[in-house]
Design a protein that fits this description.
heterodimer; A: about 140 residues; alpha+beta; five-stranded mixed β-sheet; 4 helices; about 30% helix; B: about 140 residues; 3 helices
Chain lengths: ~140, ~140
């Protein structure tokens, strides 16, 4: 089994707000992140796929195909966008880095055929990232 | 829906690797430059990985402000800009980064309840890093 990781980057804005919470609760739980005007990050995505090496091509996955999938499913959908308002899955759940990783997993997983998705890692900054490895 | 969250902190500190039970020659052989009597320092980077279910209401595995506050009060306040050899934690053991991993793991297991500590990782330099998962195999 070989693991292969491809990176992509996107810049996006978001805010944290749970409509079930009072204004005070939103402020207490989410702090500065609850500012409804939003704020932004430069996100870095690392997608790791795994599989056996195809003897004919020497590939685990066709990188061009993987790049195209990342472009269409993630970069086109999230780069320079407001995650709460423009990514449907994140309009109903808080766009934390954990949930962004889950949403990206759910978008990529059905599109991969030869290799299997192993891990989605999303960096919100150099000092914070989330990993999602699917339902364990 | 289990996810992992990793947060990175930085703290400079000094240490000296020296075992008084060994001769000077042995210390020199085992620890080399790290045994220099006056010690030396590193910019340590600490990565804390916590795991758990993503809370439906908050979207979080762990509230970052709770994690930051715990690390500030229980880790950085102890180790940041400290001489590790002078701390009680290292009065009976060598302040190697392996042992530093075990100490910080102990601090978390004793007092941190906001999420499950999955593993910790310490970079002593850009070339040396150490990972510890409470004695278990490190895995993701």
């Amino acid at each position: 089994m070989i693991y292969l990781t491809r990176k992509a980057e996107f810049s996006a804005s978001h805010y944290y707000h749970n409509p079930k919470f009072t204004a005070e609760e939103n402020q207490r739980v989410f702090g500065k992140c609850s500012n409804l005007n939003g704020h932004g990050h430069n996100y870095t995505l690392e997608v790791t796929v795994k599989g056996e090496v195809d003897e004919r091509t020497g590939f685990v996955v066709d990188l061009k195909q993987l790049k195209d999938i990342l472009e269409s499913e993630v970069v086109a959908a999230m780069d320079h966008r407001h995650l709460n308002k423009e990514v449907p899955e994140l309009s109903t759940r808080i766009p934390t880095v954990e949930n962004i990783a889950v949403v990206i997993w759910n978008r990529l997983s059905p599109k991969l055929n030869t290799a299997k998705l192993h891990r989605v890692r999303v960096y919100e900054s150099d000092d914070l990232y989330a990993d999602f490895l699917g339902e364990e | 829906m289990k996810a992992y969250l990793t947060r990175r902190y930085r703290f400079p500190a000094s240490h000296r690797l020296h075992n008084p039970a060994m001769s000077e020659a042995e210390n020199c052989e085992v620890y080399g430059k790290c045994s220099n009597p006056h010690g030396h320092g590193h910019n340590y980077a600490l990565e804390i990985t916590v795991s758990g279910a993503i809370d439906n209401e908050t979207g979080m595995v762990c509230n970052l402000s709770a994690l930051d506050e715990f690390v500030q009060q229980n880790v950085l306040s102890v180790f940041d800009h400290a001489n590790l050899n002078t701390l009680p934690a290292f009065s009976q053991q060598i302040p190697s980064t392996e042992n530093l991993c075990r100490e910080i793991d102990r601090i978390f297991r004793k007092g941190f309840n906001a999420a499950k500590l999955n593993k910790l990782r310490i970079e002593e330099t850009a070339k040396n890093s150490f990972e510890y998962a409470g004695g278990a195999e490190v895995r993701e």
